[in-house]
Amino acid sequence: MAMRGVMMLFFQVLILCFQAKAWHAVRRSFELEQTAAHQEKPRNCMHVTSEEGEFSYVKLPPVRSTSKHGHWMPAPDASGEPTAGEPDPEPGAAPATVCGIYFVADPDQTVEVTMRQVNVDCRTGGLMAFVDGWELNGQYFPGERDHEKPLGLRVQEFCAERTGGPWPGKQGATTSAGAWVFRSSQNAALVQYRIPERGSFVLSARFHHNPKPCNIMAEGLAPYYMLRNYGQRRNCTLTALFPAVVSVIAQEVGEINDSVRYCERVRVDDKLEIGGSVGLDPSYQLVRASTICGRSRGRMDLEQTILCGTTSVRLISSGRYNNQAMVTMRMADESDLRLATVICEM
């Protein structure tokens, strides 16, 4: 558990460095309360968690002081007068803070988020979104080319002026006991929110078993990761948000009689790509360390050091074969610097 806590802190620092931009925003800190068995009150705008439970957030307008009658008074605006009500945001005004709760479960799990209460006013520019995957700096995991759903169905925006159901039906979400329920396709999901003036929400997160995991956000703690296409025409990606040492233990990719070989210069439809990138989506900016095809007859232990902000292993499949690869991934340390296979601009 201590090691998992260290990895979650590392994820959180990396996400802050990436500066997520689902909506253009200026970042500030916030208070998020997790009302589960293990209560947390992190104060970072970007919060990363691998825990199930209930999360609540409340934002109130700033206050100045108490009046002589003992009531809290609204803070004055630029003119020195107390603000009244919740006016519409003025054109050219500074954008509100965009924050996010980043969920990462075990590799063979999916994330279910239930919005139990939403009091985010659409009229004042308030907005929330559920992302099937992660978003950082305008890029998504899984990449747009690697996910089975188009981006328009993966990002579900919503807001509401009331805290109770039943709520109207919403595309991409189911309803349960008057609440919106969103489900991810892999072990990573994100809830983003922008609350300019005041608002609150309560959500609960649960993790479910995924019998056929494809895309995996690696937390760096698993002894190994399995990438499989299950005989389908699809791309499956293992991604880690840190420089890593990747070792291919075994693979079966492509023709049954083909032995393992490098195939960077050969046009093949089934292959395993290993590399790194600056952004989150490797399909756009992947700097390849190697491209491997064929089937191993035993343990390979092909180790490569990827010194990039994002490390990825992509299994690209045509659908004609049952492809699979067993991979280990650990965070690179100082002893790995001399043996770097790929170095990206950080």
From TrEMBL:
Residues 231-337 form the Corticotropin-releasing factor binding protein C-terminal domain. One of its GO terms (biological process) is negative regulation of corticotropin secretion. This is Corticotropin-releasing factor-binding protein. It is found in: Secreted. Its main location: secreted. Residues 1-25 form the signal peptide. The lineage of its organism: Eukaryota, Metazoa, Ecdysozoa, Arthropoda, Hexapoda. One of its GO terms (cellular component) is extracellular space. Keywords: Disulfide bond, Glycoprotein, Secreted, Signal. Residues 95-203 form the Corticotropin-releasing factor binding protein N-terminal domain.
